[in-house]
Design brief:
By secondary structure, the chain is mainly beta. The protein is built from three helices and 67 strands. About 2% of the residues have low confidence.
C-alpha cells in the first residue's frame, strides 16, 4: 500500500512534535463529500452487506447495505488508522501509529486498546501496518519503525501476544495467511522482501530479496499460487507455494497497493491513477484498464465479498465497488471534485460556494449546507470572488469574466469580459448598484449601475496582483495583494493610500473588517490585525504557518490554511487556539454566518461546518422508548443499553443533520443532546445494536434550537412511522421497537437467525449483537424473539 510505503519512508527520520494542551474543541461536521473526505487506508467486508473502512484522523465508516451508503462512526482517536481486519460483523481490529492496536466487539461503536509486547527501546513507536486474523482467537500483526519490522501473534483474541522473528526482512508492510500454519509477509524499501512460515510463525524463511521493487500487496489464490504487487507496476508470481518468485508481464507503471482475485484466474490490482490492472490467467499476464472517470485517485486497499463484489478505498474518502467483475464501477455521488475558493451565505440557510483552483463550478445550498447542487452544466473557467446584494442578485469574479445572477443562481451571465487576460480574484458590492472587482495588474474595475458598465482604474500597490478587497462602508475600503501590499480608500475607490505591513514580502490572501477600526489580514507569513483603521498593522501571535482566509464576527474569529489547519480566537485575535485536526485537505474558503455557524472549504470539494463551542446552543430531546427483547413485563423495566439517535430532515431525501448517543435507563428514558441542527422540522430515528431502525411519526417533529423536546415513542403505536412498534405490555400499555435485526440490514430474517444459531452453538456470551434479550448469553430465547419477527416479515419502515 502506498500509505505504508510513505510511513516506512517517514519513520526513517524520527520527529517529536509537542502537542498543545487545553484545546478548545469545536465539533466539525462534513457537509461534502458525504460521509467524509479524509483519505482511507484500509477496507474490510465480513459478508456481502457489512463492511468497514478507516483512515486519516481516526476516521472509521461502516456500511450495512453492501456499500451503497456508509455511516461515519465515532473516531477511535485523532490518530490515523493504517490497518483494519474484522473477524465477524461485531469483532474487529484497527492499527495505528505508536503501536496503537484497538479492538471492537460491538461493530465499531466502541473500541478498547490492546497491549502489544514492548521489549525494545522503540517498540512503542512501531506503526501497525497490517492485521490478519484467521478466526476469533488467532491473529497476526506486522509493525514497522525506523529500520526494523516485527510480527506479533495472538491465540486468545488479542489479550496476549508473542513476538516473532522476521528472517532478516526489515521493511514488511503486508500479511497474508492461507491457514493457521502457512503464511506470508512482504514489503521492502529499495527492493522486494517476502518471508514465509509453515508453522504458524514459529519460524520464518526469507524467500524473496531485492529482485524487484518494493512490494505493497500480496495474495495467494490457492495453496501454491501467490501474487505480489509493488512499485513501478511490478508483479511477482509464485507457483510453488512461495519458494520461488518470478516477474509477470504487466504494462502499467502504477504502484500496486492491493490485489484481489474473484476466482483462480481473474484478479485485479489497485493503486495510483485513474486506472487499474486486471488478469484473466491467474496473474501471468495483466492489462491496464480504465475505471470510466478522469479523476486521478490513489487506492490504498481493496477487498472481495462472498458474492464477488469488489470494493476499493483510497484518498479523499473515495470508496468504489464493482458488482459485475469489473465491467462497471460505482463511486459515491459528488457535486464537485474541484477545489473551493469561496463560500458566501445570503441568509442562514441559503449559500453559495465557488470552485477556483483547477476548474470552475458554482454550488448552491438551501438547507444550511446539508446538500449542494451545481448551478452550471459543465465545468468552466475558475472563479474566486462572490458578492450578493440581496437574496437573488449576486456577482462572481473569476478568470477573465465577471458574472451576474438575478434569480438566485439559476442563470449566470457575463457582465464584463477582459480582453487582456485579467484574472479577477475578488469582488465586493457596497449597495445594490456600486461594486468593485480586483485582480491582476493592480487593476480595479468599478460599477455604479449594477454591473451594466465598468470603469477601470489602478490601485497603487507594491505588488502586481490584488488578491482581496473589503469595504467597511460605502466609502471606506481595503485591498491587499502580493509583496505585502495593503491599500486603503476613504472616498469609494477614487483615491488609495498604501499602508505598511510588518511582513517584508508576504503574499496577502484575504482581508476582513468587523468595524471601521478593527480589521484582519491573512498571508503566507501569518496573520495581521489593526485596531486603528490600518494606521498600524501588527503581527498576531497565531500558531506558526501561513493562512489563506481569516474572518471574524465580533470577537470570534477563524483562519484556515492549505494543509487543513484551522485556528480560532475568542478575544479578537489576541490569542489563538489550534483546533484538533479534522482533515489535511487544503482549506481555502471560509465563511462565518450570522447564525454563528462557520463553514470552511477547499480541496476536492471539501466543505466543513461547525459552531463555536462557546456559542453552542444545545437542543435536548428527552425520548422515551423500549426495546422489545430487553423489556421485562413482570418488572416493567428493561435492560440498560446504548442507543444512537439521528435527526433527519423532514423533507426528501431526509438527510441526516445531527446525531447523538445515550444510554437508555431502565424506565426507557434517553436524554439526547444535539448541537448541529438548526431550528426546523425533523424525523427522530433510533438505532440499536440488534433492533430495527425506527423513525418517529409521519411529518416529523418541530425542533427549536436551545429548547427541550419530550417525545414518547412508547405509549401509542402511531408514535413510530408506519406504526412500526410492537406492544410489549398491557398494564401499563407500552410499545417497543422490534428486536432481532442482528446484522443491521433493516430486516429480521433468516440471516439473523443463522447468526444466532451459530453463536448459540459456540456458546458465545458477552456484549454481542446476537444477544437479542440482553442477558449476556446467546441461546434459544434470542432465537425465539428473532424467529417470531422473521415470520411476520418485520423490517424498517421509512418515509
Amino acid at each position: 500500500m502506498i500509505i505504508k510505503r510513505l510511513i516506512i519512508t517517514l519513520l526513517l527520520i524520527v520527529v517529536f512534535i509537542p502537542i498543545a494542551s487545553s484545546q478548545q474543541i469545536d465539533n466539525w461536521e462534513w457537509l461534502h463529500p458525504k460521509p467524509q473526505g479524509n483519505s482511507l487506508n484500509a477496507i474490510d467486508f465480513v459478508n456481502d452487506n457489512i463492511g468497514y473502512t478507516a483512515g486519516a484522523f481516526g476516521t472509521i465508516l461502516k456500511t450495512t447495505d453492501g456499500g451503497s451508503y456508509w455511516n461515519q462512526l465515532i473516531p477511535i482517536s485523532n490518530q490515523s488508522i493504517l490497518s483494519l481486519d474484522f473477524t465477524n460483523t461485531e469483532t474487529g481490529y484497527a492499527g495505528s501509529f505508536n503501536q496503537k492496536l484497538s479492538k471492537t466487539t460491538d461493530g465499531g461503536l466502541s473500541w478498547n486498546s490492546l497491549q502489544l509486547p514492548v521489549t525494545g527501546q522503540f517498540d512503542s513507536l512501531y506503526s501497525i501496518l497490517d492485521i490478519d486474523f484467521l478466526n476469533l482467537n488467532v491473529g497476526y500483526v506486522v509493525g514497522f519503525f525506523s529500520l526494523e519490522s516485527k510480527i506479533w501473534k495472538t491465540t486468545d483474541g488479542g489479550s496476549n501476544w508473542t513476538t516473532q522473528t522476521t528472517a532478516g526482512a526489515n521493511y514488511l508492510n503486508t500479511l497474508h495467511f492461507i491457514d493457521e500454519n502457512n503464511g506470508y509477509a512482504a514489503g521492502g524499501s529499495l527492493g522486494s522482501e517476502i518471508i514465509k512460515t509453515t508453522n504458524g510463525g514459529s519460524t520464518w524463511e526469507l524467500v524473496e530479496f531485492y529482485n524487484a521493487p518494493a512490494l505493497y500487496s500480496l495474495h495467494f489464490i490457492d495453496q501454491t499460487t501467490g501474487v505480489a504487487g509493488g512499485g513501478d507496476g511490478r508483479i511477482l508470481i509464485s507457483t510453488n507455494s512461495g519458494v520461488n518468485w518470478n516477474s509477470a508481464w504487466c504494462p502499467s507503471s502504477m504502484e500496486i497497493n492491493s490485489l484481489v482475485f474473484i476466482n483462480s484466474t481473474t484478479g485485479f490490482g489497485f493503486g495510483s491513477g485513474d486506472v487499474y490492472i486486471k488478469t484473466t490467467n491467474g496473474g501471468l499476464n495483466w492489462t491496464e484498464e480504465e475505471f470510466g472517470w478522469t479523476v486521478n485517485r490513489l487506492f490504498s486497499d481493496a477487498c472481495l465479498t462472498p458474492n464477488g463484489t469488489i470494493h476499493a478505498a483510497g484518498n479523499y474518502g473515495i470508496v468504489i465497488r464493482s458488482t459485475n467483475s469489473g465491467a462497471n464501477w460505482q463511486k459515491p455521488a459528488s457535486v464537485t471534485e474541484n477545489t473551493l475558493s469561496e463560500i458566501r451565505f445570503v441568509n442562514n440557510t441559503t449559500g453559495y460556494a465557488l470552485c477556483g483552483y483547477g476548474g470552475g463550478d458554482i454550488l448552491k445550498t438551501t438547507n444550511s449546507g446539508q446538500t449542494w447542487v451545481s448551478q452550471i452544466s459543465s465545468y468552466t473557467t475558475p472563479m474566486y470572488g462572490l458578492s450578493f446584494t440581496d437574496s437573488v442578485t449576486g456577482y462572481i469574479a473569476g478568470s477573465i469574466n465577471l458574472k451576474k445572477t438575478t434569480n438566485g443562481g439559476t442563470n449566470w451571465s457575463n457582465v464584463y469580459t477582459s480582453f487582456t487576460n485579467e484574472i479577477f480574484s475578488d469582488i465586493a458590492f457596497t449597495n445594490p448598484n456600486t461594486g468593485y472587482a480586483v485582480g491582476s495588474y493592480g487593476k480595479l474595475q468599478k460599477t455604479t449601475n449594477a454591473g451594466q458598465s465598468w470603469t477601470a482604474s489602478t490601485i497603487p500597490i507594491s505588488g502586481s496582483f490584488i488578491t482581496a478587497i473589503c469595504f467597511v462602508n460605502e466609502n471606506t475600503g481595503y485591498a491587499v495583494g502580493d509583496n505585502s501590499a495593503i491599500a486603503k480608500t476613504t472616498n469609494a475607490g477614487v483615491n488609495w493610500t498604501t499602508q505598511t505591513s510588518p511582513y517584508g514580502f508576504a503574499y496577502n490572501t484575504s482581508v476582513d473588517f468587523v468595524d471601521v477600526n478593527t480589521g484582519y489580514i491573512s498571508s503566507g507569513s501569518g496573520l495581521l490585525r489593526t485596531t486603528n483603521g490600518g494606521t498600524n498593522w501588527i503581527a498576531m501571535n497565531a500558531p506558526s504557518g501561513g493562512y489563506y482566509k481569516v474572518q471574524f464576527r465580533n470577537n470570534f474569529g477563524y483562519a484556515v490554511n492549505s494543509n487543513g489547519k484551522i485556528i480560532k480566537s475568542m478575544d479578537g485575535g489576541t490569542t489563538w487556539i489550534e483546533q484538533p485536526t479534522v482533515t489535511n485537505n487544503g482549506l481555502y474558503a471560509l465563511y462565518f454566518n450570522t447564525d454563528n455557524y462557520v463553514y470552511a472549504g477547499g480541496l476536492i470539494g471539501t466543505i466543513l461546518k461547525t459552531i463555536p463551542t462557546e456559542l453552542l446552543q444545545v437542543t435536548r430531546v428527552d425520548l422515551t422508548m423500549f426495546i422489545e427483547g430487553f423489556y421485562n413485563p413482570s418488572l416493567n423495566t428493561q435492560v440498560r443499553d446504548t442507543v444512537r439517535a439521528y435527526l433527519r430532515s423532514a423533507s426528501s431525501p431526509y438527510a441526516r443533520v445531527d446525531s447523538a448517543v445515550a444510554v437508555m435507563s431502565e424506565n426507557g428514558v434517553l436524554s439526547l443532546r444535539f448541537s448541529n441542527a438548526s431550528s426546523g422540522q425533523y424525523y427522530i430515528t433510533v438505532k440499536h445494536r440488534n433492533s430495527i431502525e425506527t423513525w418517529s411519526r409521519a411529518g416529523g417533529e418541530n425542533i427549536t434550537v436551545g429548547s427541550t423536546l419530550n417525545y414518547n415513542m412508547s405509549d401509542q403505536q402511531n408514535r413510530a412511522f408506519g406504526n412500526n412498534l410492537k406492544q410489549i405490555d398491557n398494564s401499563p400499555v407500552r410499545f417497543a421497537i422490534f428486536s432481532g435485526d442482528v446484522n443491521q440490514d433493516g430486516f429480521v430474517d433468516g440471516s439473523d437467525m443463522s447468526r444466532i444459531d451459530n453463536d448459540a452453538f459456540n456458546f458465545v456470551s458477552g456484549y454481542v449483537a446476537s444477544d437479542v434479550n440482553g442477558d449476556g448469553t446467546v441461546d434459544g430465547s434470542d432465537g425465539s424473539i428473532t424467529e417470531n419477527n422473521s415470520f411476520t416479515f418485520v423490517g424498517s419502515i421509512k418515509p
